[in-house]
Amino acid sequence: MKRPSSVDKIEDSGRLTNISKDAVGRLIKRVKSRSLRGLNKVDDSYLQKCDSESSSSSMLDAALRRTVKKDEKGSNGEAIAVIPSNSGTRDENDELEWEEGSLPVLNSVNSSQERTINGLTVEFDVSPDAAKGKRIRRATAEEKEVAVLVHKVNLLCLLGRGRLFDIACNDPLIQASLLSLLPTHLLKIAGAPKLTAKALTPLVDWFHRNFHVRGPDDSKKLPSFALASALEAHRGTAEEVAALSVALFRALNLTTRFVAVLDVTSLKPDVDKPEFSNPRTGKAGSGIFNSSTLMVPGSVHASVSASNNPVSDEKGGDSRTSIHRRSNILTGKLLKDMSVTHESNGRVLDPSTSADQDSVTEGGVVKKSGGPKRKGDLEFQMQLEMALSATRTESSERIMNLNGAYVDNRPSKSSPFKKLKAVGTDESPVSTSGMSTAVGSKKVGAPLYWAEVYCTGENSNGNWVHVDAVNAIIDGEQKVEAATAACKKSLRYVVAFAGHGAKDVTRRYCTKWYKIALQRVNSTWWDAVLAPLKELEAQATSEIVHFEQGASSRNNKVEAVPSANKKIQICEPESAYVTVKKDDEVCEDGIEKNAKRSLSNSFAATRSSLEDMELDTRALTEPLPGNQQAYRNHPLYAIEKWLHKYEILYPKGPVVGFCSGHPVYPRTCVQTLHTKERWLREGLQVKASELPVKILKRSLKHSKVQKDEHDEFAEGDQVALYGKWQTETLSLPRAVDGIVPKNERGQVDVWSEKCLPPGTVHLRLPRVFLVAKRLEIDFAPAMVGFEFRNGRSVPVYEGIVVCTEFKDAILEAYYEEEQRREAEERKRKEAQALSRWYQLLCSIVTRQRLKNCYGDGTSSQDAANTSKLEDSQNKPARSSQDNSKSPGSKPEKLHERKPKAAEFVPTKDHEHIFVLDEETSDGLNSTGTKRCQCGFSIQFEEL
DNA sequence: ATGGGGGATCCGTCTTTGTTAGTG
DNA sequence: ACACTAACTTTGACGGATCCCCCA
Q1: For residue range A237-250, what is the model confidence (pLDDT) as tens digits?
Q2: Strand B positions with any atom < 7 Å from protein CB?
Q3: What is this structure's pTM?
Q4: Distances from the Cα of A86 to the Cαs of A67, A89, A106, A122, in angstroms?
């Protein structure tokens, strides 16, 4: 990879990217291996997936063994067990052998196979039909956890990538180069006091005509380098082109964000498995990092010309090649059609409503498409027209796909009508008023990158406006969801990048949050990740706004009159961003600067909070889903049918709508119910006069347990449930006279601090009950929960509950007791250590003596040497035992004669038999030596 | 052809308050 | 005799997510 070595920061980022990439690669590898292991673990499920021809020999082997095992009982005689050669007599313990035994591997597996082994017939059946019947293995908790981790890592990586592109958009060289290419009349936009979305039209139009999208490339360029290349070639990936548009807007001092749809791996396992083996990603070798849009380039034929002719003429592209023109013709045609068929949602470029199908717009000028045409062009146009007319017939309200310009223009064998796929999928109003995806197909990629420009002239306070320069769409935020849905992508995370920061703006682009939310990571984690970035983003956009006011002076300095001959004309050595900052620092005195900064910050805060409010409002005003299933987990609405077992509607109203005849209630009306006992855990008790709002039937098992109880409602097979509104704060009897109030089991259930009787305290210390008992203070064991052990749940006790007044006394005594205990423990350990040292030293002494006695190299020495090691390790205990017994026991015959080492040849399993050799006494202690026939001796001391 | 409803299936969660023999 | 510890054995019902089939 070629790197601009001069830019250290970028190098760092590059390294970081590589490191991250490697890490993620390893993680994915781990996931793959896990999933493989998982498949192996559940052989049956894998078996069904094993194509008869593709299954590996080991798999087949395993399958064979299984089949054989299953069929060995031979119920119907169709399948006969393979009996291994050694299995003439089988018993119960053969299980393991059956598992580990191997069978000859067959080369071909058919639905029914036979093979003779040692005269036995093998018959097994791995028919696909049988496998088909089996269910697909579901993901385990571990796999789900891994999927969440991968999702998070992927999100972080894509966030990092977005930030890199955002930084690259601030590159002064790129911004200056773009300005140098811009026609002079378009520079005026920078000075506009009230920017409106409409005012951006000519600018976006120019950009769209001059920069084109090509397919994703496999090169691993750094963002800034990629942008430079794209700028030079006037074409790049959708990501690069979108980033260039952001750079251009920023160069013109427009408050602009780079917006990207983070196309992360799924939160759920399995779903992504095909993606791991996706040939495209595999080929690219960059996995999830290669997340560029899959757009099929509109100017797909123009690759050669584009590279040869990198700079386009700014005055309408007179010098452009015919191929360039053709792509523009097609694009313009589509755009025009969009403007004709639909104008209600979002302003589309080229306001011309001419019905002339042959006219195209180019730089706002309507032109005849009289350029040279190739055979493919005509075919394509025919197909396109047929498609468009068909779309109009189907739904005149719908507009063309955003990506209409990127329709694959290769001649298709199928009918053009088959390409049409109206993807106005949902009940969403967008689908009816939004864009049609008639031309959209799997060959067309989703719009994943665009810009957001803050237009001060929109609404009363200004507004962020969606600007998709890649597809030449302005203010088309409502179309994005439909377009991405058409391409089987979901808008799970739409993130706007600015000033090295980022902000989640998904809610602006999605209308069905209830669907999106389920596919997103835990919001707490995501919010925590974004919090610092959001701050950066807010600061950055505020700074730009602040300087926007003085932008005219700067623009006067920029005499950017681009020329076709100038490849990159840098009129201003510093970037717009940098220049403005410098102006601020140089021109303003300290006080003014601070005042102005604080003013801008306050405005930014207002702007940011305004946007937050806007997004929140969108969330709260989501349209009612049309299908019942959507209400199962809808965050805003609920229908009674889909309430859970422990839920109820309270209050039952207001009804906000109907779905298939079912009244729809706000989710806030859904209350969770609990039993009396469960409420106690929360530190709440059910009011005396309250009746259960719901009574459930208890399971058989539980009803048996409850049979004896005489609760009014919870009798036998019933469970009484109460709502939170029926409860009050728990009032337990107060501790009186140092006596702790206990429950029927003589304990206190300490689920939380709230469950403690007033006047008591929970001492969560080990062995503290001993102290309380010694001090004769009343206490109750504190039960803190349950754990499942030995097939049943058992209560877990931690510490005791005592009256508050005894707390200090108990603690004091406890610490004293603990100190004493620790001292005792220390003493015991020291004694033990002493004893072990003694044993060790004895062994060393004995060894030395042996060396001294038998160090001449006789045959017995070998024996002694071989035995001494193991004896020094193992025998002391035995020998000491023997020692202790020896004084009482008579040393029989062996005692009479001294062992002669030369006579005795110890065997391998020889055990020492000691006889008393000599004994001396010093009054208090008597010491002695015991000697075995083999020559091994040990000295002992009798206390 | 497609999407919704509902049944079937499977995985994960919740449930929940011993007994006995051996050892010090 | 008493207190303490370790071993014993290894639930099962139900909710909910997901799959799959049928029907509008």
Answers
A1: 888 999 999 999 99
A2: 3-6, 9-13, 15-18
A3: 0.56
A4: 19, 8, 21, 17
